[in-house]
Design brief:
One of its GO terms (biological process) is transmembrane transport. The chain is mostly helical. It is built from twelve helices and no strands. α3 packs parallel to α7 and α11 runs antiparallel to α12.
Length: 292
């Protein structure tokens, strides 16, 4: 094969590579880039099409600031608890001597549960922990414990937090399990030979190696909870003032209809989730270098 034919073959392969990735690029353009540009333009515009910063200034009104505060607290709480409980489950299945069928069952369930959200998840929790839910009635009739008489309410900050943990914990399991499997057995054996205890091994070797993965996953779980819309609306309606519900009211509501303020709220949400995802990507890259 001469040089000209080789060059033609390389150009053909290069063109085929771009052709293969074209559907993804088209999808990203239509459903990510263009909608984001539309939101940014709408956030800095008004009904007459003029440039304005009034929508951004309106984000600092007490009502919207409180909604962002509640959303950040909700996202951080569920992210931290999701990391803690998810890490314990992942450590048990990755490092423990559990049967293979149990490990596969937990992994499969985590893959399904991490994507189970919206109206189906809300209905499932209402049927389980609602006022006439299955668990609620069992606790009341069999054990004499009335959850709602004790102050519990599913349509509240606590109730929404419990609901979010249903998909936050499995997501943590899926992400951190490969990192735990990357811990080399030689490190534990070397630490044991040198007289280190199990606690010292985790404190001085395992956790420093896993720290970038843990922080990165925390950022990802925060972004995952902060951007959850359908679950919050289906479960609480308008009774809990969080950013996704306020955004829905501004764009689709009948009373608070102000699309450009809604664009500004969406722009702020995009900025926060973009920062969280950027932190996750950077820390994930660093963790992969450690585990190579």
């Amino acid at each position: 094969m001469n040089i000209a034919n080789m060059g033609s073959t390389i150009r053909t392969r290069h063109a085929l590579n771009w052709l293969g990735v074209a559907p993804f690029l088209l999808f990203a353009l239509l459903f990510l880039i263009l909608p984001t540009m539309n939101i940014v333009i709408g956030a800095f515009g008004n009904a007459d099409g003029d440039l304005t910063f009034g929508n951004i200034v309106a984000l600092f009104t007490p009502t919207i600031r409180q909604a962002f505060r509640i959303s950040i607290e909700l996202s951080m709480l569920t992210a931290v608890l999701g990391c803690v409980f998810g890490f314990m489950i992942a450590a048990a299945i990755a490092l423990g001597n559990l049967p293979g069928w149990l490990r596969n069952t937990v992994t499969t369930f985590s893959g399904v549960a991490s994507n189970f959200a919206g109206v189906p998840l809300s209905f499932a929790f209402i049927a389980t922990l609602g006022r006439l839910g299955f668990v609620t009635l069992i606790l009341r009739d069999w054990f004499g414990v009335n959850l709602y008489a004790c102050g519990f309410n599913l349509i509240s900050f606590l109730g929404l937090s419990i609901t979010y943990l249903y998909f936050q914990i499995p997501l943590m399991v899926l992400i951190i399990t490969p990192a735990l499997e990357g811990l080399r057995r030689e490190w534990w054996e070397a630490a044991e030979i040198l007289g280190a205890s199990g606690l010292q091994y985790w404190r001085m070797i395992a956790l420093p190696v896993l720290w970038p993965s843990l922080l990165g996953t925390l950022a990802l779980l925060f972004a995952n909870a902060f951007g959850a819309v359908a679950t919050a609306i289906a479960l609480t309606g308008s009774s809990l003032s969080i950013v996704p519900i306020m955004l829905f009211a501004q764009i689709r509501g009948d009373v608070l209809n102000d699309p450009h303020l809604g664009y500004a709220i969406a722009f702020a949400m995009i900025a926060l989730t973009a920062v969280a995802n950027a932190i996750y990507i950077l820390l994930r890259m660093r963790a992969e270098r450690w585990l190579k």
